[in-house]
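ok so for the tutorial part 2 we go from a plain amino acid sequence to predicted structure tokens. step 1 is just haveing the sequence, like this:
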Amino acid sequence: MDSPVPQPGRTARSDARRNREHLLEVAGEVLAEQGTQASLREIARRAGVGLGTLYRHFPNREALLDALLRQRFDELTALAETLADTHEPRTALVEWLRTFLAGSTTYRGLVTDMIATIDDESSALHASCAAMRAATSELLTRAQRSGEIRGDVDHLDVIALVSAVGWIVEQSPRLVDRSDHLYALIMDALNTSRREP
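step 2 — the prediction. this is what the tokens look like for a chain of 197 residues:
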């Protein structure tokens, strides 16, 4: 019995898919070591592909970051929906923002890259970050309607404050152990009355 002859298009697509997945895996490793400003040439070198191959898959640094983070952002957006369905409004917001803070410090420089996309709709990261902002807005609105979170803040205020903690920790490793305390201070400031975050 003859075995099927591989279709040239299928082989090329399979190779391209494998290259893309391998590039993402290596990029995750390099960014974990060097931060979001790591050399794309270094990522391609470690992946064993040419720089042109990297650029065929990811036309710029933001596109690479977006692809690398999209799954994580999708998981965080789904978590926001789950928290909204299963937790009291304030608790859902607190847990969501704590998880958002942890995720925003995955790679050195990520907080800065995420904040930069707020007003830049042409950024490859904009759509993914917009979904995160929308999830924050929904949870914040619910917590405000419950009367437990101040009504004079919006989702961009909250994201900026929480991102500031991520940026501070990124700039001073000495403060890593203080991140929970800094986060608690922010949540305390957002409460309509003083209580433990």
